[in-house]
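Exercise 7.
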Amino acid sequence: RRAPMRYDLEAVARAAAEAGVWLEIDAQPERLDLNDVMAHVARAAGARFVISTDAHAAAELRFLPFGVDQARRAWLTRADVMNTLPLDRLLKAMRPPPR
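Solution. The predicted structure, written as tokens, is:
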């Protein structure tokens, strides 16, 4: 519902990958800021993702399939989406990268 920002998505995705920062696929139907095409481009640049419902009430948890659909259309796999990992791998992935 708002005009998209203009920025170099590939550069942002590369920087996020290098910094160990994950990009959010927001499943809120009024948001969906990182769409499927953008997520596909970002993945090719090395980015990894989390899918979030952006829920502000329990009823909004039902939005999760919208984010999963975005990820599927972007050809992301479970390995690309950090919050699909088994808990031990997710916790390890959440540690800051060594400097």
